[in-house]
Write a structure and sequence with these properties.
The protein has 139 residues and is of the alpha/beta class. The chain has 5 helices and 4 strands; from the N terminus they run H-H-H-E-H-E-H-E-E. Helix 1 runs antiparallel to helix 2.
Length: 139
């Protein structure tokens, strides 16, 4: 499976979420592709995998808190959630983050919002909350 297939699957997922339709099948497909990709990650996420792998030697994957500053479409954050990093959070200055929150709430039973639209300077999380921070392709 390739990153391009994951992008296509993610687009199909977002369409269902935004139409308020059941997206369980689309999430299952996205999750399956994501887990196949994680076995041999492309350059786009290989450094993230490397760094998270170092953290996993000290902290269980499910307890690693990730912050994505400038989530854009949210695909990388959802990719990380799909491969077991459930504590992924993020902010963005533009775009609709509600779909991302809806996915995490339905698929993982997360009660609170993990994604927020902000000015990019202020973030709605306490100090020292995250183990891993990423900011990719932010202008």
């Amino acid at each position: 499976m390739k990153w391009k297939e994951l992008k296509r699957s993610y687009s199909e997922l977002l369409i269902k979420v935004r139409e308020n339709k059941d997206f369980s099948k689309e999430w299952a497909k996205f999750e399956k592709i994501a887990n196949q990709i994680a076995k041999n990650p492309p350059l786009a996420v290989s450094s993230i995998h490397y760094s998270l792998g170092i953290l996993e030697k000290k902290i269980d994957k499910k307890n690693i808190y990730i912050f994505d500053h400038g989530i854009g479409s949210g695909m990388k954050s959802m990719y990380l959630a799909a491969i077991g990093y459930y504590n992924v959070h993020g902010v963005d200055r533009s775009g609709d983050v509600s779909a991302l929150n809806k996915i995490l709430k339905k698929m993982y039973g997360i009660k609170k919002n993990n994604f927020y639209k902000t000015n990019g300077k202020e973030i709605p999380f306490p100090d020292n909350y995250f183990n891993f921070i990423m900011s990719i392709q932010v202008a």
